[in-house]
Design goal:
The complex is a heterodimer of chains A (162) and B (32). Chain A is mostly helical. Chain A contains five helices and no strands. In chain A, helix 1 runs antiparallel to helix 2, helix 1 packs across helix 5 and helix 2 runs antiparallel to helix 4.
């Protein structure tokens, strides 16, 4: 079973790249692009063809990332989440990643279902959902910065700047 | 008061500041 951590790390990185890549796409590209496209009447395609596909891979990659990360922690799972001294750095990263994961499934996705018309909602409810999903996505972008530090850099000695 | 998350740059700067704060929290937790 020695191969399990290596496979878990591989999957964790691949899925994490997809998750954060799409998160940054939404925040650094799509928000501004949609605003500009709506201004000249060409935004419908983004909402109809791009956003649903991007959201599909976004939310499922977040689940795969979290599960592979939990598998990678293995017997250290409790030590990490209890922020024990030996696992404090990866524990902070794990907590940040977990908050982001919950944000995706409990806040962003239910809002997106209203925005995309997969769930019945009034125009008022859709506008509220747009604002909540936007702020949750921005919060995840902010949290991703320390999360990557503690997940990647922290695991390679950056916590001591060695 | 405007929400800092409305600005992409404020979001990134907020993330960097949070990293610095959590860095010291981590060092404290580790007893360093």
């Amino acid at each position: 079973m020695d191969f399990v951590p290596a496979i878990s790390r591989w999957i964790h990185l691949l899925a994490g790249i997809m998750w954060l890549g799409l998160l940054y796409y939404f925040n650094f590209v799509q928000v501004a692009a949609l605003k500009a496209a709506q201004a000249d009447g060409s935004g419908a395609g983004i909402g109809k063809h791009i956003a649903p596909r991007a959201l599909f891979f976004f939310r499922w990659s977040s689940l795969v990332t979290w599960l592979a990360g939990a598998s990678l922690l293995g017997a250290n799972f409790t030590d990490a989440f209890l922020l024990r001294p030996s696992h404090a750095a990866i524990g902070i990263g794990a907590w940040l990643g977990t908050i982001m994961f919950v944000n995706v499934w409990v806040v962003i996705w239910p809002c997106q279902k209203r925005i995309l018309g997969m769930v019945d909602a009034s125009e008022q409810e859709k506008n509220t959902a747009r604002r909540v999903a936007y702020l949750a996505s921005r919060a995840n972008t902010m949290l991703s910065i320390p999360m990557v530090f503690f997940m990647a850099a922290g695991a390679h000695g950056a916590i001591y700047f060695q | 008061m405007p929400n800092p998350l409305d600005s992409l740059w404020a979001t990134v700067i907020g993330g960097v500041l949070l990293t610095i704060v959590l860095y010291f929290v981590a060092r404290w937790l580790m007893g360093a």
